[in-house]
Amino acid sequence: MSETRILQKASLDPLLAKLAAAGNRVLAPVRSGERVEFEEVTTAAQVAADYVQTTRPAKTAVFPRYEQMLRFKIGGKDVAVEEVPAEAKPTVLFGLHPCDAASFATLKAVFTWDSGDAYFEPKLANTTVIGLSCTQGDDYCFCTSVGGGPGDTRGSDILLTPLDATKFLAEVLTEKGQALVKLAPELFAPANGPSEPGAQATGQKSAALAKIAPRFAADKLSSKLPALFPRGEVWLEQSLRCIGCGACAYVCPTCSCFDIQDERSRYAGVRLRCWDSCGFGLFTLHASGHNPRAKQSERWRQRVMHKFSYQPERLGVLGCVGCGRCSRACPVDMNLAQHVQSLAEIPV
Ligand code: SF4
Ligand code: SF4
User: Least C-beta-crowded within 10 Å: which of 162, 297, 336, 341?
Assistant: First the structure.
């Protein structure tokens, strides 16, 4: 299915116009001060360049921080309930780095493992991903330790790689990607013309990519982790700094925990699905007062085990794409890559 094309950087504005004319909103990285976040854009000039990672992940397009599930009104003994259908605007996510694009497979595995999810699935079905290969990384990136890489095509419908200052290699990878190319075929030149030999273009792709050295082998770590449960001293030593703020989960592209809360006044209210985190003490607190993960070290262990052991074993996907956001965001410098690297080195 994959084919390679050339997209001129000067063609981005016409492409964005075509996407909008076809009824899509386009979300892309936009700089605001020191932060870069996914926002709606209409012109290429709004799209941030020269950054390593957005603060928050693109998953908000398919799994927002909160969303309404139903509304209710209370009148005497009567309660009128109105279901709120999922909002699933046709969306193009533009400029996702390969780690973010790969995270959609993890989210999909979680949200569809037993039955469909009425909120997640329509959004995913209406989302097309135009990824952007990474030409730079930082010390927090470890995609190559978890099966990814700066030019990884997984999760992208089209993957762009800057070949030089004027053009991208465009790998068209899926039917959604092909449908997008059909909106503006004149903008996507074949990469096998006399001036852009395909093999030469793909060779240039490798040369353009960031170099991210692998730090551990995720498959070996996954097979070792069951032997590190419970081993309380290991997890206590690792997590002494953790203050349970949950920032790591809120910036993570693969974290999928949520809770359901009713927000109400006396006569009306809404039921919301909201992000939650296994790093919070309240996350597992029972109504009885018992908390099966009462200590922060147990919650840190759960976070690591869930991502690197339970999910690969039960769903066949890692719960981490190595984006490094959790480590960049942590107020007490808990570095996930360093911690799992040290776990991988413990003799068991
Ligand atoms: S961001 Fe850091 S301190 Fe906060 S819960 Fe995560 S690991 Fe703990
Ligand atoms: S656990 Fe950290 S490095 Fe892994 S995907 Fe989540 S935010 Fe990125």
Answer: 341
Identify any residues that bridge with 323 across adjacent strands, giving them in sequence order. none
For helices 12-21 and 175-183, give the axis angle rounded to 10 degrees: 100
Distance (Å) of CA 194 to CA 8, 90, 189, 198:
16, 36, 11, 9
Of all ligands present, the nearest one to the C-alpha of 277 is: 1
195-239: per-residue pLDDT in tens?
555 677 778 899 999 999 999 999 999 999 999 999 999 999 999
Pocket of ligand 1 contains residue 240 by CB under 6 Å: no
What angle separates helix 296-305 from helix 232-239, to the nearest 10 degrees? 100
Ordered by start, the domain boundaries in the chain are: 3-345
d(CA 348, CA 343): 10
Tell whether ligand 2 has an atom less than 6 A from the beta carbon of residue 254: yes
